Amino acid sequence: MPARRYSKEPENSAKCCKARGSDLRVHFKNTREAARALKGLTLKKATRYLEDVVAHKRAIPFRRFTGCIGRHAQGKGFKNHGTMQCRWPEKSCHFLLGLLRNAEANAEAKELNVNHLRLTHVQVNKAQQQRRRTYRAHGRINPYMSSPCHIELIFTEQDVPVKKPVEAAPKLKKKKGAKKLARERLRGGN
């Protein structure tokens, strides 16, 4: 088997953990949409989201591969893309959950803080199709192909934001006008 590499290398590999799966027998299109919905989420939020999808509490929005995708009420909750087309691709979610668990184990092995990991890179590619056959009328045979995929995830440990300490702002003296200064001089004040 050829040596595989990631399509993107992280800037700081000490603060990152990776997970990948090759030739996974799960539909490419469903997996691409499910993986795209996870980008930018933390590891814990991504895991919770996929578990909710498997339980049909939340849905995966379909943005690119939208042919014959029905509209559902759970599609109202998605920001910035204006589609109600969504599904619950359970098999894709199970494969992604397995990769999330693998990434979490890799992070613990590298002694990274699992609570601060954010998904910065996700990519799903088509793998080589697997071939079967289906038998048709009049003695004909048609192909019955599967569409497996490769998945790669890169999580990056985010820096914890530190609040800037509140400093007492120096009091600025209010500038006095010429008339007011003249009045004070007449009265004998400073």
Q: Top keywords for this entry?
A:
190 residues, two-stranded antiparallel ribbon, alpha+beta
- The backbone outline, from C-alpha atoms, is elongated
Mind describing the biggest β-sheet?
3 strands, antiparallel
Could you tell me the radius of gyration in angstroms? 28 Å
Number of strands: 7
Average predicted confidence as pLDDT = 91
How much helicity do the residues have? 25-40%
SSE order, one letter for each helix or strand: EHHEEHEEEEH
Overview of the structural elements:
- By secondary structure, the protein is α+β, with helices and mostly antiparallel strands.
- The protein has helices at 28-38, 43-54, 90-109, 178-187, and strands at 16-24, 60-61, 86-87, 117-126, 130-135, 141-146, 149-157.
- It is elongated, with a radius of gyration of 28 Å.
- The mean pLDDT is 91.
Topology:
Elements: E1 16-24, H1 28-38, H2 43-54, E2 60-61, E3 86-87, H3 90-109, E4 117-126, E5 130-135, E6 141-146, E7 149-157, H4 178-187
Q: What is the structure about, briefly put?
A:
With 190 residues, the chain is α+β, with helices and mostly antiparallel strands. Helices cover 28% and strands 23% of the residues.
